[in-house]
Amino acid sequence: MSPIREPTVVGIANFNAAEDAATLRGAMKGFGTDEQTIIDILTSRSNVQRQAISQAFTHEYGRDIIEDLKSELGGHFEDVIIALMLPPAEYLCRELNNCMEGLGTDEQVLVEILCTRTKPEIAEIVDTYERLYNRPLAEHMCSETSGDFRRLLTLIVTSVRQGARDEEAGVDGARAVEAAQQLYDAGEAKWGTDEEIFNKILAHESFAQLRLIFEEYKNISGRTIEQAIKAEIDGELKDALSAIVECVENAPAWFAQRLRASMQGAGTDDKVLVRVVATRAELDLGAVKREYERLYDKTLESDISGETSGDYKRALVALLGPA
């Protein structure tokens, strides 16, 4: 079973990069900016198409489209548009770097990006990070996190090669039973929990293999792996392991919850809102919308519309696609 693919943005059929580049140049040139045209074009093109527009723009006008957009736009609207213009792995690497730079680290961002993605996606992030920042992601994370949480994240980014190979190899029923027993023995079956075993299995195995392991776990234990993690483990490690489990079972529901949390309480966590909508649009945002409505009895669009305004709102709503 592969991850649910239900994009809201798929690109357009008769795509012409030079034409789009010219329209965008016109929208930014001279007095005032035509934001609506920028929204209409960039929220309906796929990332591959946007990269082609970017190249055509440089080729035709000798200018960097991202720099031009930055100088014309501002605020959270600019954040959405720049998120769309960067290649996905590069955008996520920038977000990882931002959450670790400066004072304090936003562990929730590390969890959101690293615990929810498949091995091939992580492999691309690891390669891109080193290319952009000239230091390994694992090394940077080690200096910003600690304890079992650090060990889990390090295992996730250092085991990607093996994990990606396993992903192609398919699932192994006998190994799943063995791993489920190990998890049971490391947690519920003993006094105190052996986090190392949880880390090793949840970081190393592919999503497909984990799905099988979790089913076997339920057969052995009588309760779900999620219940066990919540009962046995706490703090950041609990959040991280829970994210892996929930994304193995239903990634769109996990992202729906993440979006909901970003809009609850005082103020909106715009960084999360922008990142989740922009990065899931070509993957499973259609399914995220459905899960959101199922979980909260409200549409994602109505909640986003209530929390945002202006061009920022228009850009996010355009990425959500038709209701």
Automatic annotation (TrEMBL):
Single GO term (MF): calcium-dependent phospholipid binding
InterPro entries: Annexin, Annexin_repeat, Annexin_repeat_CS, Annexin_sf
UniProt cross-references to SUPFAM superfamilies, sorted A to Z: Annexin
Keyword Calcium attached: yes
Membrane spanning residue stretches: none
Family: Belongs to the annexin family.
Protein name: Annexin
High-level lineage: Eukaryota, Metazoa, Ecdysozoa, Arthropoda, Hexapoda
